[in-house]
Amino acid sequence: MTNTKRQEIKERNLRRKRRQQTIMLLIFGGIVLVLAAIIAAPAITRALRTPVERPMADGRTMGDANAPVVVEVFEDFQCPACQRYSDTTEKSLVESGYLEQGLVYYIFRQFPFIDDYLSETGGESDQSANASMCAAEQGMFWDYHDILYTNWNGENLGTLRDSRLISFAEDIGLDMDAFEQCFAENRYLADIEADLALGQQYRVNGTPSVFVNGNQIAPGYVPSWEDLDQAIQAALP
């Protein structure tokens, strides 16, 4: 074999080796990019929260039904401002003593409106309201309320898709046969629509909207505990 032939074979083998190295680098680089994307992507997981003791809780209410001050809050479980309100203002009300002392009756009103802007029927707002009413049927509305807000991760991102709503019910220990039947038939649609109608009567145009004895407080932004406390004090006899 001539030196020229040997050189050609050597160069051909070298080119083949370089191609193989390039392919391996591309494969490795692709794996790294995929792993980085997985790590960077916001994970949709299920988290539990320690149950909160709520004074005189009954269905979607807290406190004494005969209290002189009635606080109504209209919420959409997809609403980020509702999550903030729940974690701050509502929490302060629970801790304030107004409920135990029979001074305030607190009512959660369903106002699932975010789906309407997306022209969706049975979207995450509607279905989370539906699911929460089925939890209320078993006396666990507030536990379900808490797990929804604990796991909120943005509007229409699948956080409150049907399969997860069912999983949340299981996480808090609901009777799953009863829950799933209630959820599938949207048993409390009429009650949700009644809340929506009341909200329209009150001219609710966003959530959370909070009313004290029928008068809205802090319209246009999330009411602080100071806003609510001041309104309660003014409404007390």
Summarize the structure.
The chain is of the alpha+beta class and 237 residues long.
Q: What's the CATH topology label of the largest domain? A: Glutaredoxin
Going by helix content, strand content and strand pairing, the class is: alpha+beta
Overall domain count: 2
CATH class of the largest domain: Alpha Beta
Sum up the overall morphology in one term: elongated
How would you describe this protein?
This protein is of the alpha+beta class and 237 residues long. The chain folds into 2 domains: 1-41; 61-235, Glutaredoxin. The protein is 54% helix and 10% strand. It has 9 helices and 5 strands, in the order H-E-E-H-E-H-H-H-H-H-H-E-E-H. It has a 5-stranded mixed β-sheet with strand order 1-3-2-4-5, with helices on both faces. Helix 2 (80-96) links the parallel strand 2 and strand 3. Helix 4 packs across helix 7.
Write the layout of secondary structure elements.
Elements: H1 3-40, E1 61-63, E2 69-75, H2 80-96, E3 104-110, H3 114-117, H4 124-137, H5 141-150, H6 162-171, H7 176-185, H8 189-201, E4 209-212, E5 215-217, H9 225-235
Parallel strand pairs: 2-3
Antiparallel strand pairs: 1-3, 2-4, 4-5
Helix pairs in contact: 2-9, 4-5, 4-6, 4-7
Which keywords apply here?
237 residues, Glutaredoxin
